[in-house]
Specification:
With 259 residues, the chain is an alpha/beta fold. The protein is 41% helix and 14% strand. The strands form two sheets. It has a six-stranded parallel beta sheet with strand order 3-5-6-7-8-9. A three-stranded parallel beta sheet has the order 1-2-4. The longest helix has 19 residues, at 238-256.
């Protein structure tokens, strides 16, 4: 079942729900599925894994600068395609917003140009450049600025950035400013290399406010969430796995709550 326009869904869907808050599922808009067939395959793989809700998070960065006005029509079209194909997956709109130029980011944020998670101001998914030279030295100040405006910052896959792999202590100021961290399941499985796996494990060990997501892009890069929760349960125990799941459940409940 697809989401209603603007990503609103009734609260009854919370029973047995599992949220994937970072997924490049929209077809033909960024480096995710090339066409509708691939996007539907990702959706079916998600359903088979037990995922009930997916936030579609296309890129908003220097090369693919997808803003709210660009994203919502694609989201509505794919929601209709899911319904037509009778795929029992609820999708919500969103985006993965890159921070390289703090002044530009603040301008576009203040102007309401970004599509935050669920197309609501509660949570935003923030990424950094893969180039360590483009990491803003005042990134923590930007996180604090966003938090002051009532939006919870979730940093996408910090374990994959070379800037943090080389100096993990750079994560501390972001956490102190209020950021949460989203660790990607494929990183924990070693599919993004040993450095990403090691730092992903360290993030889970050192920081309490962590969520898991797939960052799925296409059928061959769609490992699911259940294997990630199992990985955490095996290495950190059932309480830590339950904590991650509860945090994701709380995000979903917030996004589905009446405005």
């Amino acid at each position: 079942m697809a989401a209603a326009p603007a990503g609103r869904s009734p609260a009854k869907h919370l029973d047995g729900a599992m949220l994937d808050l970072h997924c490049h599922i929209l077809p033909g808009v960024d480096d995710g599925p090339a066409d509708l067939g691939e996007a539907l395959e990702v959706a079916l793989l998600s359903v088979a894994d037990g995922i009930t809700h997916v936030i579609a998070t296309p890129h908003c960065h220097r090369h693919i600068h997808l803003l709210r006005a660009d994203i919502l029509p694609h989201f509505e079209r794919f929601a209709a395609d899911l319904a037509a194909a009778a795929v029992p997956l609820i999708i919500l709109p969103g985006s993965e917003i890159q921070l390289t130029d703090p002044a530009e980011y603040r301008r576009e944020f203040a102007a309401g140009m970004y599509c935050h998670l669920g197309d609501r101001p509660d949570f935003t998914l923030l990424e950094f450049s893969w180039d360590p030279l483009l990491y803003p030295p005042d990134a923590a100040d930007v996180v604090a600025w966003v938090r002051d405006r009532g939006t919870q910052v979730i940093v996408a896959h910090p374990e994959r950035y070379k800037v943090f792999q080389e100096a993990p202590d750079r994560l501390g100021p972001l956490a102190a400013a209020g950021a949460w961290f989203q660790v990607t399941v494929d990183s924990l499985l070693g599919n993004h290399g040993s450095a990403s796996r090691a730092l992903g494990e360290e993030v889970l060990r050192a920081y309490p406010d962590v969520l898991l997501a797939t960052d799925a892009h296409r059928p061959k890069r769609c490992s699911g969430l259940s294997v990630g929760y199992a990985w955490v349960r095996d290495r950190f125990g059932p309480d830590r796995a339950a904590d991650l799941r509860a945090r994701a459940d709380a995000v979903l409940a917030r996004l589905l709550a009446p405005v």
